[in-house]
Write a structure and sequence with these properties.
The complex is a heterodimer. Chain A is α+β, with helices and mostly antiparallel strands. Chain A has 2 domains: 4-78, Ubiquitin-like (UB roll), CATH 3.10.20; 84-232, Alpha-Beta Plaits (2-Layer Sandwich), CATH 3.30.70. In chain A, 25% of the residues lie in helices and 16% in strands. In chain A, a hairpin with a 6-residue loop joins strand 3 (52-55) and strand 4. Chain B is α/β, with parallel strands linked by helices. In chain B, the strands form 2 sheets. Chain B has a 5-stranded parallel beta sheet, sandwiched between helices. Chain B has a two-stranded antiparallel ribbon with strand order 4-6. Classes of the chains: A alpha+beta, B alpha/beta. Chain A binds chain B through residues 94, 98-104, 107-108, 110, 113-114, 116-118, 120, 122-124, 127-128, 130-133, and chain B through 82, 85, 88-92, 94-95, 97-99, 130, 132-133, 135-136, 140, 143-145, 147, 169-171, 173-176.
């Protein structure tokens, strides 16, 4: 039997077991915490920083998706301070690369765009970087546009944990970080890729898309991918 | 009641935001009763007038002319609104930014041209190094993203500003 813990979220006592994360406990209790990189049934990494929460007695904000619950924890999921920091996280994502929503395949189907709207982000207070980034068109069926990538690593994790191919990884550091295929090969030349497209379906933005779609046409079916894990267990 | 002095400007954009402004339907009658349009593509004024209450800026700051104009606008306007994604984030005009402007012009006007291969300089302003959002040059009082921002958001913004309030856009607008 897992150990039952006594946890408060936004002042309410909620059921929790040892080994669960704050996010899991909060979701089960019907509390909303915004997320971008999190995917159901896939290992959380705390990349996007949107799920940050306040924990009483802890001097810094903690990502709910990777922080395990502890007995006696008191968590705040929504506050002025958290909204401020979540907006900053979105603004950094927008300023870091080239997100021209208006001409993106994922316009109106994009989780970054939707989250910006949900949190009331109307502009970035930080100067845009306008980096020069490649678009990998080498794969027969799919496109990788680094301009739209937010480095959430959903593609990396789904490919490794669900498909079992581990085609994707992250190379370099900081703002130079890039999603790479195999040993930094063009996608079309990947030895390990099974062409399953799971990475494309879970990508929250227009960074990965199927070929042949124009602006606004690429809607995704990420839930189908994560449902595979629920049905079949982890590989 | 004194009418609010409204200016609209079209920098590096497609005029889509102005189209959205004209698409206010019956709200435009309300707006028209309350404002006097003193400058912009919709009226004849040649010089940006002194003492403007609200200026709606469409487009990124992309050329030397844009840069001069936006400084004049800031000096002479009480409230500057960045209208649409180009003014807010650079958007499509900023897609040239990773490339040097000179190379871009040469690619289009020399490599890409059939005859008369030269970069035009006569009667056209020099391009800035990058097309940048308005707020990277002057202080912006309100950002209204969207490509274009929906007419009802523009109508709401205008009516609130006319009433002397800074509108709370909340989730009424989105990028793209």
């Amino acid at each position: 039997m897992p150990e039952n813990l006594s946890i408060r979220i936004d002042g309410e006592y909620v059921p929790a077991e040892a080994g669960q994360t704050i996010l899991e406990v909060a979701r089960a209790a019907g509390k909303y915490i915004p997320t971008l990189c999190w995917l159901e049934n896939i290992t959380p990494v705390g990349a996007c920083r949107l799920c940050i929460v306040e924990v009483a007695g802890v001097g810094r904000l903690l990502p709910a998706c990777t922080t395990p619950v502890q007995d006696g924890m008191s968590v705040t999921t929504n506050s002025e301070k958290l909204l401020r920091y979540r907006r900053i996280a979105i603004e950094f994502l927008l300023a870091e690369r080239n997100h021209q929503c208006a001409v993106c395949v994922s316009n109106n189907h994009c989780e970054l765009q939707a989250m910006a709207q949900k949190l009331g982000v109307t502009h970035s207070r930080y100067a845009y970087g306008y980096p020069r980034l490649p678009v990998d068109l080498s794969h027969e069926r799919y496109v990788l546009d680094h301009n739209r990538c937010i480095l959430c690593t959903r593609c990396v994790r789904v490919c490794a944990e669900v498909e079992g191919a581990h085609v994707w990884d992250v190379a370099s550091r900081g703002t130079r970080s890039m999603i790479v295929c195999d040993m930094n090969h063009p996608w079309g030349e990947a030895q390990t890729c099974t062409n399953c497209g799971k990475c494309v379906q879970v990508c929250p933005t227009g960074a990965m898309a199927e070929k042949g779609y124009a602006v606004e046409e690429m809607s995704k079916r990420g839930a189908n991918v994560t449902r595979l894990v629920r049905l079949g267990g982890r590989l | 009641m004194r009418k609010a002095r409204l200016a609209t400007v079209w920098l590096d954009g497609c005029s889509g935001c102005h189209m959205s402004l004209l698409d206010l339907d019956e709200v435009i009658l309300e707006v028209a009763k309350r404002v006097e349009v003193v400058y912009g593509p919709l009226v004849d004024a040649q010089e940006f007038p002194k003492s403007v209450d609200v200026t709606l800026v469409e487009g990124a700051v992309s050329s030397q002319d844009d840069l001069d104009l936006i400084h004049t606008i800031r000096k002479r306007s009480k409230i500057v609104v960045a209208l649409g994604d180009c003014a807010v984030s650079g958007n499509v005009p900023a897609m040239r930014n990773p490339h040097p402007a000179r190379k871009l012009l040469e690619r289009i006007y020399i490599e890409g041209a059939e005859g008369n291969r030269c970069v035009p300089t006569d009667g056209v302003p020099a391009l800035l190094r990058q097309a940048v959002p308005v707020q990277e040059v002057v202080k912006v009082d309100l950002h209204v993203p969207g490509c274009p921002p929906p007419p009802r958001a523009i109508g709401y913004v205008l009516m609130e500003l006319i009433e002397g309030r800074i509108p709370d856009l909340g989730t009424k607008v989105k990028f793209g």
